[in-house]
Amino acid sequence: MEEAIEKNNYTDQEKQQLVDMEFMPHLRALYNFAYKLTYDEDDSKDLVQDTYMKAYRFINSFQKGTNAKAWLFRILKNSFINEFRKKSKQPAQVDYQEVEGYYNSEGTEKPSSTTDLRVDSVKNMMGDEITSALNSLDVDFRTVIILCDLEGFTYDEMAKILDIPIGTVRSRIHRARNLLKEKLAGYAASMGY
Amino acid sequence: MGLKQYVQNVKFRTGMANCREYIDLIYDVIDNQSSPSQEQYLRRHLKLCLKCVDALNLEKELKKAIQLKSVHQEVPKDLADSIKNKIAKSTP
Ligand SMILES: [Zn+2]
């Protein structure tokens, strides 16, 4: 997936310019991504600072004119997995590759969840309901929804950010949305929509 | 293109795909990942299938709700400055 990395030799001025013009504008998106992964302000701050410091340290591997946002998201996600996830007391993760394989194999019907969630009930939902349904998803499913729906990355960019094949991106987003619909259908029922 | 995707495309072109397969296409369409011909296959199916029309509307609405209603976190005021300071102090 990785093309041969061509090292640049940016001057200090160029580096400063890249930071100011290409990296800093994504601060809000990165902080929100970090927060949705950690649910902790201090952890999010650390994670985002860490991301910018790494980006700066490896700035010569960044190709001017390419997608800085995707590059920064990839660094943040890797830091989260390598450092933050270890710290957190999350129980052992299910192997989603296996789950995804199961749901994609021929002849397995996906559980139908759309039947009891209606368009008008989604329209009537409050932001908190959408947010807590999203928060209740496992981090891998939450991540694809954030990247796709909130940040508008393409499947190809998501594959690069997450280091997974594009087919896995596709099936993970389908699965994530079905899970989200199940959660929201639960809300809708409890609210009497 | 993989064999699976090739077979899928033939099914869409000839109108032999089932609703579950059109749902996959719906996701590609709302995520802007589809080709014009795929969109055409979906439109053709939607003329015949109300179930998939409902599914498309629900997916569109859900995506819109996530974009417009999910809560955004305010960035701490000092974060940008603290990052710039740290960068200024370090040598890459
Ligand atoms: Zn249909």
Automatic annotation (TrEMBL), chain A:
Residues 129-178 form the RNA polymerase sigma factor 70 region 4 type domain. It comes from the Bacteria. Residues 24-89 form the RNA polymerase sigma-70 region domain. InterPro entries: RNA_pol_sigma-70-like (IPR039425), RNA_pol_sigma-70_dom (IPR014284), RNA_pol_sigma70_r2 (IPR007627), RNA_pol_sigma70_r4_t2 (IPR013249), RNA_pol_sigma_r2 (IPR013325), RNA_pol_sigma_r3/r4-like (IPR013324), WH-like_DNA-bd_sf (IPR036388). Keywords: Sigma factor, Transcription, Transcription regulation. Signal peptide: none annotated. Belongs to the sigma-70 factor family. ECF subfamily. This is Sigma-70 family RNA polymerase sigma factor. The lineage of its organism: Bacteria, Pseudomonadati, Bacteroidota, Cytophagia, Cytophagales.
TrEMBL record, chain B:
The lineage of its organism: Bacteria, Pseudomonadati, Bacteroidota, Cytophagia, Cytophagales. Residues 19-52 form the Putative zinc-finger domain. This is Putative zinc-finger domain-containing protein. It comes from the Bacteria. InterPro entries: Znf_put (IPR027383). It comes from Reichenbachiella agarivorans.
